[in-house]
Amino acid sequence: MGALVRDCIELGLTIIPRGGGTGYTGGAVPLSPLSAVINTEKLIDLGGVEEIELPELPGRQVATIRTGAGVVTRRAMEAAENAGLVFACDPTSADASCIGGNIAMNAGGRRPCCGARRSTTWSGGRW
């Protein structure tokens, strides 16, 4: 993913990430021919619920699910439920929206709390 991002930037393209592709938020509509739509729906890694300390909340353990941007919201909700917790998003769009859209566009209702994120940087690296 990093090399793709770097190359798009070198070509002067605007990068538009596309998740579930429902079009409900209109976030994946290119407004210029100098745009590249990058499909993230195959980024579907989903870990279990872990209690970890986030840098933003020192000394406090919080329930966390590590996911890829393409994980369908319903899967994260089910992982939380299996751990006796609730991942609170709009249930009417849970089968269509993806975690990446939840974070970037508020797809799926209330934005989930994101204590820490890892992304691809403009130079193709990760943070």
Question: TL;DR?
Answer:
By secondary structure, the protein is an alpha+beta fold. The protein has helices at residues 2-10, 73-82, 99-105, and strands at residues 14-18, 35-39, 46-53, 61-67.
Shape: globular
Class of secondary structure makeup:
alpha+beta
How many helices?
Answer: 3
Mean pLDDT over all positions: 82
End-to-end gap? 13 Å
Strands, count? 4
Query: Helical percent range?
Result: 10-25%
What pattern of helices and strands is seen along the backbone? HEEEEHH
Beta-strand residue percentage:
15-25%
| Largest sheet features | 2 strands, parallel
Strand order of the main beta sheet, please?
1-2
Low-confidence runs (pLDDT<50, min 5 residues)? none
Overall radius of gyration: 16 Å
Features:
3 helices, 20% helix, two-stranded antiparallel ribbon, 127 residues, alpha+beta, two-stranded parallel ribbon
Description:
The structure is a single chain. The protein is an alpha+beta fold. The chain is built from three helices and four strands; from the N terminus they run αββββαα. The strands form two sheets. A two-stranded parallel ribbon has the order 1-2. A two-stranded antiparallel ribbon has the order 3-4. The longest helix has 10 residues, at 73-82. The mean pLDDT is 82.
Topology:
Elements: H1 2-10, E1 14-18, E2 35-39, E3 46-53, E4 61-67, H2 73-82, H3 99-105
Parallel strand pairs: 1-2
Antiparallel strand pairs: 3-4
